[in-house]
Amino acid sequence: MAAVLGIAATALATEPAPVAPADGTSTAIAPQDATPAGSAATPTEAATPAPASTPAAAPPAKKEARDPNRLEWAPLPAVGGNTDMGLMLGVQTVVVKYDPNYAPYRYRVGAQIAMSLKWWDGRGLYLPVHMDFLRLDFPGLAGGRLRLFVSAEYNQRNNTGYYGLGNASRYQASSTEPGSYPAVSMNRQRYQYRQYEPLVRANARYQLGHGLFLMTGARLLWERSDVYPGSALWKDRNRVYGLEDHVGLQVAAGITYDTRNHEFVPSKGFFCEAQLRASPGLGNNLNFGGATLDGRSYVSLYGEYLVLASRLFADLLFGNVPVYEMSRAASFENREYPGGRDGFRGVPEGRYHGKVKIGGDVELRSMFWTFHLLGERFRVGALLLADAGRIWAGYGKAPELDGTGAGIKWGAGVGVRVQVGETVVARFDFAYSPDSAAIGVPIGIYVDMGHVF
């Protein structure tokens, strides 16, 4: 759930190493300065076209050779957030140990302590989100075929969204139903609840063949949900699962096929992943399972100056699903979906809850400006984005929850990308959705790391 952008002021003097995204589920296609494993194109196909040299041009300065066994570390201020959680502030630390016998490094350790600030209905600032983590990444195991990711995290959200079950859940301003929600504080608590979630997670990826990987993972968590009396979740407290304090265990497995020419800024190739997850319930009745299909395509229309990226995504849940899982998707990470920064941008996080979620995304991307600063390469780009899809509360016909029409939820907007070195990509997205406009937020703003897909 982290949505923090590390402003790597001290990292500019250090060339970023090829690293996996924070969730540890990446297929680790190598960046442009290394030979990609399982890629369908050479590294130079992903690089920005360089202008032809002229006789008057000075030869480029040679980079100073670096110790192949070096240890690099840097404390980084963390600044980010979005219109759902507010302004995120904190500190991150990254430690990377290099070894010529391991690619891209021997290990990488990342840590963060951060919290957010947000305005409360004109009454002042409050602290809606607290996110801390310790993450370890061990690539190059088992002869280079195995990569292991382990993390310990603490997530606390005082404004987790809940508006009701199904695609037809409604938002109504407090003034439209006077006296019906007497115990909540205006709209801030009417469609929210407080969530505490410490967890530990381990994911592993094993290479089976050219571009083909086996994924396995496990997640152990403790969950507490504080429900505001009179809120929408309070009204549904007898029809949803998981509001009591509980321990949960989820195990997952999946198959990934990845031919992208670059892990972090792809311009061609495909990414397809099928995932299964299950939770047996530990001393409770939260026995449930899920399946996820994630298919992505990248087509270069004009080098990296114009790339068409698209994604089709489906997430299905079965059994006694906890309420917080009904606004998430995927097996190896906590991905907010369908609303929020990972799903339909512009749609608020937690706006829709259901067991069936289907969506599609299209982006027209362009990386058009490259420059160097303090010995590091920067690349700047922009994109047009559109996200759309639908959810269902369950598998039976329930027009009172899901409506009877098409019921398509959507968001559209623009974005800016700033790439530092090979692996650091800052994301700035601005999206409109009727769902955000209805609650008085005309534009959803998202500052985060990496492409959405």
Q: How would you describe this protein?
A:
- The radius of gyration is 22 Å and the shape is globular.
- The chain contains four helices and 19 strands.
- The strands form two sheets. It has a 16-stranded antiparallel β-barrel with strand order 1-2-3-5-6-7-8-9-10-11-12-15-16-17-18-19. Strands 13-14 form a two-stranded antiparallel ribbon.
- The chain has one domain (10-42, 67-172, 183-449): Porin (Beta Barrel), CATH 2.40.160.50.
- The protein has 453 residues and is mainly beta.
Secondary structure blueprint with pairings:
Elements lengths: L70 E12 L3 E12 L9 E13 L5 E2 L2 E13 L4 E16 L24 H5 L1 E18 L2 E16 L4 H4 L10 E13 L10 E11 L8 E15 L3 E14 L8 E2 L5 E2 L19 E18 L2 E17 L6 H4 L6 E12 L3 E9 L1 H5 L5 E6 L4
What is shown here, in short?
By secondary structure, the protein is mainly beta. The chain has helices spanning 186-190, 232-235, 399-402, 434-438; strands at residues 71-82, 86-97, 107-119, 125-126, 129-141, 146-161, 192-209, 212-227, 246-258, 269-279, 288-302, 306-319, 328-329, 335-336, 356-373, 376-392, 409-420, 424-432, 444-449.
Major sheet details: 16 strands, antiparallel, barrel
Q: Class, according to the CATH hierarchy? A: Mainly Beta
- Under the CATH scheme, the architecture is Beta Barrel
Order of strands, main sheet, comes to 1-2-3-5-6-7-8-9-10-11-12-15-16-17-18-19
Structurally, the number of domains stands at 1
Described by the principal axes of the CA atoms, the overall outline is: globular
**Which stretches of 5+ consecutive residues score pLDDT under 50?**
1-61, 178-184
Total number of β-strand segments? 19
- What is the H/E string? EEEEEEHEEHEEEEEEEEHEEHE
